Please model this.
Amino acid sequence: MVYGVRLLGVAVVAATMALTGAARAQQPQALAQPALVVGIVDIPFILQNAAASKAVRAQLDKDDASYKANFTKRENELRSAYQELQNQLSLLGPDAQRDRRVAFEQRAADFDREVDFRKKDMQNRLNNAMKKVQDALKSTLQEMVNERKINLLLYRDAAVHYAPEMDLTEEAMKRLNAKLPTVKVDPPSPLPKAPASKAPAQKTTKGK
Model:
């Protein structure tokens, strides 16, 4: 997207999940340790390709395209206004020149402020929407871990070699799509009011 928003990795799902309880640490050494059951999952792949993630991108891409068209038009208008101002300055007195410059600079500052705000708002809306996908994925993986009695879950990139049946990626995404087929992105936040601009200081002359 134009403003650089990007999907985030799942911070809430650790690279490894130790699922044994505190009671395990209290077991006598003589007892046999439980067999290691390993699961592998490609979390970035799921977040990129899940149905809910695609729905989030589609909604934000639509807003992004609208912002781009609007900002491009207004940027061109600012260029034209600046050129017009430069052409007229020689015809204006000092006070009029100052007022016209101040008015243009305020207009340009307001535009920059709005562009910056929309970039941050788009990223916040993306983060909020993807947090829902991340939480649903975490819940899905926990269910699979419990069902299969997995006591070690690894990122796929961290595993040098593993048996295909250890890979939970496709099954996890299938379950996630059923659990959370879409996510509604928050609407755009209203643009805050611009800070009040200070009036230019007036020159005073002292009487002789």
